[in-house]
From TrEMBL:
Residues 160-328 form the OBG-type G domain. This is OBG-type G domain-containing protein. It holds the Pfam family NOG1_N. It comes from Candidatus Iainarchaeum sp. It comes from the Archaea. Keywords: Nucleotide-binding.
Length: 328
């Protein structure tokens, strides 16, 4: 299962060095002989630096294990090649310090003179500190990348996902609450000022993720910047099915023709089943409902009223069947 981006921010190179030196000095102070003290100092310094660099590397999802949705947004957000270079610098630095440590311990084990023991230890610290100082720019870049990657929505990739689309004020939030029966979880979305609304349906110990996308699939892609357009299309890696809501009453401020054009665009961009849900049927006339249903019929899409008793079941079956088909 894909991991979320929860990596910790790294201290600066200077702070890393100061912290490792303090802990190394404390450990050395607990030993009796010069050799024991300096071996403890070397091992502790190496351990502290290695641990920090390893945790930074290991806390990020492996790029080859990322979900396609994560990977596409990460590429847009920071550029995965840049992230690879930073992580490679961390790995290389750990290996260099590990080699220095191994060589130093060997020398200490085979030295008896106290002044030589201290010289060998100081030499290790000087060379190891130089390696860490050269990491300063990579650490700053890593921290910048982590902050940006945290903007990628923390969604689930292990369960089927339904995405709700349609113009603003057509009834998307109402449908989300109807389907999930709970207050939605809010998640930020890169390159937009909007947030995803997440909810979950449950049936027979199974879950289905429902995502309302205000500001994303609620207007045409034309007119958006290239980066914003790509970030919206990243949703194709997440969606197993789409519910497109049409407001037949036009109280949302959008004509049937406008809603049809948006539906056509989404149908063109997303190769998943689409169910058209006609909203506000309690205040819509028969003629308005008929016009809305004709839009779905014209595009060869199934249509259902938002007050239908089978609405939840139809949405559940559509999404889970699509997810099962895609896994085959």
């Amino acid at each position: 299962m894909a991991q979320s981006f929860k990596a910790k921010i790294l201290p600066s190179a200077e702070t890393l060095i100061d912290s490792a030196l303090r802990k190394a000095a404390k450990k050395a102070g607990m030993k009796k002989t010069a050799k024991e003290k300096e071996m403890a100092r070397v091992l502790t310094f190496y351990g502290e630096i290695g641990k920090k660099l390893a945790s930074a590397h290991d806390s990020l999802p492996r790029i080859d294990k990322m979900h396609d949705f994560q990977k596409e947004l990460a590429e847009l957000t920071i550029g995965l090649a840049d992230l690879r270079r930073v992580l490679a610098h961390f790995r290389k630095s750990r290996k260099i310090i590990a080699k220095l440590k191994k060589e130093t311990i060997y020398k200490l084990e085979n030295t008896t003179a106290n002044n030589e023991i201290r010289r060998i230890s100081r030499e290790f610290l000087g060379r190891a500190i130089s390696v860490v100082k050269k990491l300063d720019r990579s650490i700053r870049l890593y921290n910048e990348y982590v902050r940006k990657l945290r903007e990628i929505p923390d969604v689930r990739y292990d369960i089927p996902t339904l995405i709700i689309a349609g113009y603003p004020n057509v009834g998307k939030t109402t449908l989300l609450k109807t389907l999930t029966g709970s207050k939605p979880k809010i998640a930020a979305y890169p390159f937009t000022t909007t947030k995803l609304n997440l909810g979950y349906m449950e049936k027979n110990a199974m879950e289905l993720q429902v995502i309302d996308t205000p500001g994303l699939l609620d207007r045409k892609l034309s007119g958006r910047s290239n980066v914003e357009r790509k970030s919206v299309l990243a949703l194709k890696h997440l969606a197993n099915a789409i519910v497109f809501i049409i407001d037949p009453t036009l109280t949302s401020g959008y004509s049937i023709d406008e809603q049809e054009r948006l539906l056509k665009e989404i149908k063109k961009q997303f190769a998943v089943p689409i169910l058209v849900v006609i909203s506000k049927v309690d205040i819509a006339s028969e003629e308005e409902i008929k016009k809305a249903s004709e839009v779905a019929e014209k595009l060869g899409l199934e249509c259902i009223l938002n007050n239908s008793k089978t609405l939840k079941e139809r949405i559940w079956n559509l999404t889970t069947e699509s997810a099962n088909h895609l896994r085959k």
